Amino acid sequence: MAPLDERTEIAEVETSGSIATEKKPISTILIIIAMQTEALPLVAKFQLSEDQDSVFPKGVPWVRYHGIYKDLKINIIWPGKDQSLGVDCVGTISASLVTYASIQALKPDLIINAGTAGGFKAKGACIGDVFLASRVAFHDRRIPIPVFDQYGIGARKTFPIPNIFKELKLKEGKLSTGDSLDMSPHDEAAIAANDATVKDMEGAAVAYVADLLSVPAIFVKAVSDIVDGDKPTAEEFLRNLVAVTAALDQAVTQVVDFINGKFLSEL
Ligand code: ADE
């Protein structure tokens, strides 16, 4: 543990940081969404336009939609399509990169990572449920060496949003992240150890970068498939993607409407 005077200094830095963020209500938000199907209805809902003069390095497929909605500057970031394969750039690598680049370029007050997720019926998840994650962790970074094991799991609490929970009556659950849509026996054990109700491919990566750069982040995940059910995951996911996206978009809109005009401490 750090000596007492160093710990006091850290506490002071954190305190002054949070006071600084409270001088004005939330103004700029970054919504990170991995799939175009999930992003486009929200782009339409908030009447955003695609960035013509990209804030990102030349040649990357990352797309920013932006505009003003109520009192908020909204940016939806979609990592785009893989340049050779033409599919959405899902997963932790693209999510980390766009989160880092977007924070650097746009200096958001708050990040919302929104998307579909697999849900565990044993933990109370049903198709179409929308969860706000109270904690995030990885389930496919196994490093069986003391302390590295914890680094691999990368568990962290998300930004506290008690008033959003009270007001919006969305479900609360822990989120586990990995780079596969399916679930290996190793993943299954790690997800159980993470006590997760929902499983995605981006959340903990977005949380890692947001933490690194001290930006609060919240996670809105809509259940598109039941991982511990009897249907093949990929089929169930593709069949439900469009319908569940409607529930996701409704929840994100409710969250954004709640955020509008508020301070971080009021969430
Ligand atoms: N996104 C939607 N369903 C998922 C699943 N089962 N695993 C990971 N990410 C998902």
TrEMBL record:
<dbReference type="GO" id="GO:0019509">
    <property type="term" value="P:L-methionine salvage from methylthioadenosine"/>
</dbReference>
<dbReference type="InterPro" id="IPR044580">
    <property type="entry name" value="MTAN"/>
</dbReference>
<dbReference type="InterPro" id="IPR035994">
    <property type="entry name" value="Nucleoside_phosphorylase_sf"/>
</dbReference>
<dbReference type="Pfam" id="PF01048">
    <property type="entry name" value="PNP_UDP_1"/>
</dbReference>
<protein>
    <submittedName>
        <fullName>5'-methylthioadenosine/S-adenosylhomocysteine nucleosidase 2</fullName>
    </submittedName>
</protein>
<dbReference type="GO" id="GO:0008930">
    <property type="term" value="F:methylthioadenosine nucleosidase activity"/>
</dbReference>
<dbReference type="InterPro" id="IPR000845">
    <property type="entry name" value="Nucleoside_phosphorylase_d"/>
</dbReference>
<feature type="domain" description="Nucleoside phosphorylase">
    <location>
        <begin position="28"/>
        <end position="256"/>
    </location>
</feature>
<dbReference type="GO" id="GO:0009116">
    <property type="term" value="P:nucleoside metabolic process"/>
</dbReference>
